[in-house]
Design brief:
The complex is a heterodimer of chains A (about 475) and B (about 900). By secondary structure, chain A is α+β, with helices and mostly antiparallel strands. Chain A contains 13 helices and 21 strands. In chain A, helix 4 crosses helix 8 and helix 11 (about 340-370) crosses helix 12. Chain A starts with a strand and ends with a strand. In chain B, strands 8-5-11-10 form a 4-stranded mixed sheet. A 3-stranded antiparallel sheet of chain B has the order 7-6-9, with no helix packed on it. The longest helix of chain B is centred in the N-terminal third of the chain and has 21 residues, at about 150-170. The chains are: A alpha+beta (about 475), B mainly alpha (about 900). Chains A and B meet through strand 3, strand 4, strand 5, helix 3 and strand 20 of A and helix 21, helix 22, helix 24 and helix 26 of B.
Chain lengths: ~475, ~900
Amino acid sequence: MLTVSVKWQKKVFESMEIDTSQPPYVFKAQLYDLSGVPPERQKIMVKGGILKDDADWSTLGLKNGQKLMMMGTADEIVKAPEKGPVFMEDLPEEERAANLGYSAGLVNLGNTCYMNSTMQCLKSVPELKSELSNYQSARTKDVDQTSHMLTVATRELFSELDKSVKAVAPMPFWMVLQKKYPQFAQLHNGNHMQQDAEECWTQMLYTLSQSLKPPSPSEDPDAVKALFGLNLRSRLHCQESSEESSETESVFSLKCHISHEVNHLHEGLKHGLKGELEKTSPALGRTVVYIKESLIDSLPRYLTVQFVRFFWKRESNQKAKILRKVDYPLELDIYDLCSEDLRKKLEAPRQKLRDIEGQKLGLQASAKSSSKGDDVKMTDAEGSSNGSGESSNGDQQGGASSHMTGIYDLVSVLTHKGRSADSGHYVSWVKQESGKWVQYDDANTSLQREEDITKLSGGGDWHMAYIVMYKARLISM
Amino acid sequence: MAPVPDPNSVGGGAKRDEATTKVPSKDSKKKDDKKEEDLSEEDLQLKQNLELYVERVQDPNPELQKAALESMRQEIRDSTSSMTSVPKPLKFLRPHYGVLKEFHVKMAESDLKKMLADILSVLALTMSAEGERESLNYRLTGSEGDIGSWGHEYVRNLAGEIAEEYTMRQGEESSIEDLMDLVQQIVSFHMKHNAETEAVDLLMDVEDLDLLLEHVDSTNFRRTCNYLTSAAKYLPGPDDMLVLDIAYMIYIKFAEYPNALQIALFLDNMQYVKQVFTSCTDLLKKKQFCYMIARHGITFVLEQEMVANEQDREALQDIVNNTKLSEGYLTLARDIEVMEAKTPEDIYKAHLLDGRVSSGASVDSARQNLSATFVNAFVNAGFGQDKLMTVPSDSTSGSAGNWLFKNKEHGKTSAAASLGMIQLWDVNTGLAQLDKYFHSSDNPVIAGALLGVGIVNCGIKDDCEPAFALLADYIDNEDSSVRIGAIMGLGIAYAGSKNDQIRSRLSPILNDAKAPLDVIAFAALSLGMIYVGSCNEEVAQSIIFALMDRSEAELGEALTRFLPLGLGLLYLGKQESVEATAEVSKTFNEKIRKYCDMTLLSCAYAGTGNVLKVQDLLAQCGEHLEKGDIHQGPAVIGLAMVAISEELGLDMEIRSLERVLQYGEPNIRRAVPLALGLLCISNPKVTVMDTLSRLSHDTDSEVAMAAIISLGLIGAGTNNARIAGMLRNLSSYYYKDANLLFCVRIAQGFVHMGKGLLTLNPFHSERLLLSPTALAGIVTLLHACLDMRSIILGKYHYVLYFLVLAMQPRMMLTVDENLKPISVPVRVGQAVDVVGQAGRPKTITGFQTHSTPVLLAAGERAELATEKYIPLSPILEGFIILKENPDYREE
């Protein structure tokens, strides 16, 4: 009979008795009682060796009072999770791109930055992408060959961008674009000329609106129109004859005219909706000056605003650029540019939006003083439930329950840097779904801070906004 | 000897040269009239007296002669006690030196002649020509009276001449007995008059330091030994050992055992260590010795004769075995309030970077998780808790397992082993936590658990030898990753132990034809660690055979470098002992021959400061090779290893590395940052920091990676804000390059190692002692960094854990007589070099007063700010036992 002490974790089991006539397994059972570690999990260390279950005590040379050490726990054995984590290094290239949080850039094929930046901006509209993916690869009768090809090329380009990590060279798309719009294929000194991004933007939207029309003529407007188009109701007014007429037109973008008084996008828009034109007056029988005042009659999901920075300078025979600084907000409210009818429609959703926002503010305020009382907590709960409701519904695409509010959030900016339309450099700045801003400078992409986006308002030689795109803030009723 | 006309050797009073010597003389009165007028009356009187004495000395009447000599002696003695300018009597006697010399020759042997010789000896002090050693010669023929009566300067001059004479006589092999008598006198004079350094210098010149033992006393032995130990760093070959031997004996003589022990450890002389224990009778002091031995990291077994009482011996052995290290470290951590575990994100501080914020990828990157594993391990090292590995497992899955499985394949090895790092030094808890991984079915996890056991046991010894018991079974496992885990674990746990049992298990692997190369490489490395600095023949043989057995292709592999390194570690700091092995290495395949050569040379002279070897290595770096040769890398690291020992050499080395950097080939440039990292390890010098920061943007990514790792090394365990900022910026600069980003992360982990409580510096005890295991760990990492891509960025990243060998708390923890921590006020400040300074100079400057436990940064020193306690060791680092001062009176 031997007496030993066994050290286990932080404990020491003093004066354990070993019956040397029994196999060590018996001793282990003793330890099991004390420590709760099952014998098969016990490792007992004796002078640099591990006690085997069937060892002979006499050969171990144990001394009375010797200290032994036991290792072992009753813990659960670590098992690999059934589904191991997926590592970025193992993913195929396209999935890695998804994890980057933003898609790849486009290679400049020789003065094609206008095209690259336009496409990056358009690509940021998820609804357009889904429309494109529904587009039939087989050509239908009512779409001409080149438009069809361009639409398909656009779809291919978007999907390729989503897949890859490295910058994509949009060669096929570029070829088709030139075919469809030969003006983009103009050469100057053997190089492709720099083009106006606005022209490219407009042409692209026009083509897409043509080809994405529903096959059968129905009441539904085509998809592109639904997304980008807005109706303007104009009132023509002749001062001389006091004649009045009204007309409606459908456009894809608003113009922001830049004059000396314009310092802000809002002023520019107002300016752009008011104009003079010469027209033959049926009453007077001659050409007179009419004043045209337009108001917005229907709102698009994506509001595009073009800053009219370029104008034809007759004396120098070139397109000159207005460098004036025109601020634009991250959140645009165009309520006062809307027609009476539309305003009425907007009233209720706007009220609702205000309520929600008010509650959000109230929530924050009450969070600061949480000891106020039960009634405050009640509103807290309400506010938070409403807040979450809003976020889930707001994301729904054009559901019956969501309504326009006339408030828009900035989602992408296409900027131009340089002194004339035919030179310089176009870059696009796009807000990702994650809320982060990414700059697409041809093949290079980089993350940007939101406060830097509003600094692209011109007034210097830095990139300045040329086309901005806003997304409607919807509210469910 | 000197053929040039010499005013002193011209007989009959100087005549022609008077004008130049500017000494007034009676012969050329006209010229000197003016000068004599300049003299004050007193001086004139003295001058005339002296002239009279000179005449009288030549008088035939012995009585008169004697009187004259005595008067002359009196005059001289009165004036030579201090020597800021030439004393007047010497000045006035100058013209008569020749006369007196001539007369001395003519004199018959007598006391008077001796007396005159004495005077001439003193006069020769200013008048003898260079190299004539007349002062000494006259002294030897003189009366042998009290040497000090002639003043310090005379003695000093004499000592100088003795040294010259000694070298000459050594050349002629003539007797030096008469000189030694004089030496005796001089030494005893110096030692009595606060001039220990000169006494030591003289004795070193005449190669008879033993004499010192007779002359030191309780007032001056400290300064003497201090001078001896610091002089040893600059002495060549066997002399330094001799000097330290003497210092040791002096310390023993005066029962200054802690210092004696320090030197014994420096000499790596276990006999001396034993002697310290047997000579000392105070048990408490012996406990302090044990703490010192534990810090040095050597394996030491106390014997009956050292400590008689068995129970005491057990308690002391516990200290040597470092079992209390974890407790002390946690005491420090609690006192400084850094127990809260830190996550890798706390270290990266990404929110401080503007602009390029990571896009918050939703999918894990194996590389980034691996770096997080290491950062987590290093930052929380030894704290026993973290936020990835030791999170209490929730009921369903056990989240501790979750992080483990967020690492890929071999990454799991490092992750499992990181648990060992977190539980560092706490063997009991560590083993309990690692236990669950032993039962895993996943080989990399088992390998990690084995490695973790090794890490937990690093520097800790236990009678039950848990590391060997647990790991031995896996050495011959069929899976090579498991084998490596076990082998590396053993190497870390038993570094420096010279354990034969392990050797008998590991050696066969080396010469096993079937074993894969990586297993062999790690086996060689582990053997090198276990037998570090032992010059063990058998291990050397095994590694040499293993090297010879490698095929041409295998020699080109990155891991093969661990074989020569393992061999080199056997001779770490052992200087000439390496020569036989170095000869053998010349027969190796040329692919590895030079690499082996450089590694052996640099290891053998590591920490010696040997200038000749530095030059050898520099010469290697100067060559511009065609390509493919990799031996210059270890040569550059070798430069740092040799020069690291003392401050002056270290600074010179930093400067010469700048040259090497500018003129060297790419393979040299890649190693330079690593060398800088070693030179300033855990000591962030601003100049080096700037150099490395510059290199971290180098166009050669290998240079950049090495520089980044080195930034981590120089800041290791310091929390240095500047390096942390640099690394943060680098992390955004290299955010797209996974390899460089990995290096940046690792470096960030190093800088915040142990949340700033640890150091990697292998030197300790006021930079005197070099812990061989610590250096071995660092050097291994550096060699691995020479081929970063294949080793650290490949699947052998766990070599980073070799650094654990060098990790030590940079603390001063005071404990009372029962070894319980007590808090006392201490002053901590920049250490001042007080070698060779008289009196009791201040040893620290710019100090702040704290209460223990305190952290000590590189180059800092602590001293007690209270008289209430007496520390048992003069070197206030690590654990210090305090004894109450019996003479203390509360004010």
